[in-house]
Amino acid sequence: MFVIILNVILCIRPIHSVWACVRSCPANCVCTQERSCSVLCDRAGLTQIPTEFPCEAYSINLDKNSIKFLSERAFGTLPSLKSLSLNHNNISFITPGAFKGLASLIELKMAHNEYIRYLHTRTFISLKRLIRLDLADCNLYNIPDRIFIELPALQELFCFQNNFRRIPGAIREMENLTHIYLEKNKIEAVAYNSLLGLTRLKYLNLQDNRINVIHDRAFQDCQQMEYLYLNDNFISDFPENSFDGLKHLKMLNIGGNLLRNVSNTWFRDQLELEVLYLDRNRISYIEEGAFENLTSLVSLHLNSNNLTTLPFSVFQPVYFLGRLYLFRNPWECDCRIEWLKEWMENYRLVRDIPCTSPSSVAGLDLTDVYFERTAEDFCLDPKELNVTSYRPFPTGEIQSTTENKFNSLISKLLLQKGLSEEVVNTTEAFSNTTFLNGLTNKVSLGLGECHVKIIYIFTILLLIA
């Protein structure tokens, strides 16, 4: 009997909760029991915040409306609200204290509001439990330095695709921040104090900005960093101790910059680094020892640079890595990279290394290059062809023009003898016979193609005579 009564009591509460959630549901919205009480007002054509929400609301979705203004206590008092989304609206002004009454809020999304250009220092007052804040793709040029002072629990900050010219000072000393997204802004430098006090930061994305300067020890407080994106900027060099202390770094992306060399001082502390992107730079030289401490590396991207060789002495310490990307470089396929050919054949973890030189192997993939050896088993570089003998003209266009001139000369000589078009055609056909081919082959052994043309002319003149 007691079990039956208990089951009745347990069933009454959810039914009441569902009824309460639906009873206070705003017009044009849908309220469901998902996650206690979810209020779905997205795409509802709203121009302002509804005046009343269910007190039990756990999440509110107001995405893709035309809301322009948030007044003080815009949502009333909602003690159970954990998630609030205002993405894709026309919000232009947020009154200080607009989110008062939302003491339990964990996630606030306001991305894609292009008219938000200014935020008051007290915009987010009372959101002491907020963990995730999304301000991506607004039109912010800056935010007040003390705007996050009352957000002690903040861990994830999304501010990508705005107009910041510097890393916001507001993030300094935010010791609980673990993820910061600042890609696609207009940031020009990472100053020595830009990331001050971010002792728990694990993920920092600064890709696709205008960064041209990284100050000395700019990342010194970020000892827990695991993922760092600095790709697609204008960085031409790093201070020698830029990444010192980042011992837990697992992925570093510095591709798409203006680097010309790789220093052996950059990666001294990265014993746990697994993926390194150096692609799409202008790298032509890698200092010996540059990779010697990267004992955990499984993927190295060096494609799309100006590398002509990769000495084994530079690469030897990470000989065991999983993937090596080297395509789109002007490789000189000589004995200096014979070791790489052997490694490619043995492990099959590298491919697509087209040779640029020597000319005898230009256009071939390194895997197709044969290295001859001396009697003492020393490697011999592929020979540089005699371009004059084998390819008398630097371009097909010039060669074609020269052939046209010879053909024109032959035609004029034939016309002077009063030969018909039929004889000319017969002569052209005759020029392809075994006799002339044999003659051509013999002559071409010691003469260029131009000399062969001359032999043709004299042969034809003899036939005509």
TrEMBL record:
Gene designation per UniProt: NYX
Organism domain of life: Eukaryota
Domain annotation LRRNT: ranges: 24-59
GO CC annotation: plasma membrane
Pfam families: LRR_8, LRRNT
PANTHER family hit by this protein: ANTIGEN BSP, PUTATIVE-RELATED, CHAOPTIN-RELATED
Keywords for the protein's UniProt record, in alphabetical order: Leucine-rich repeat, Repeat, Signal
Record-given protein name: Nyctalopin
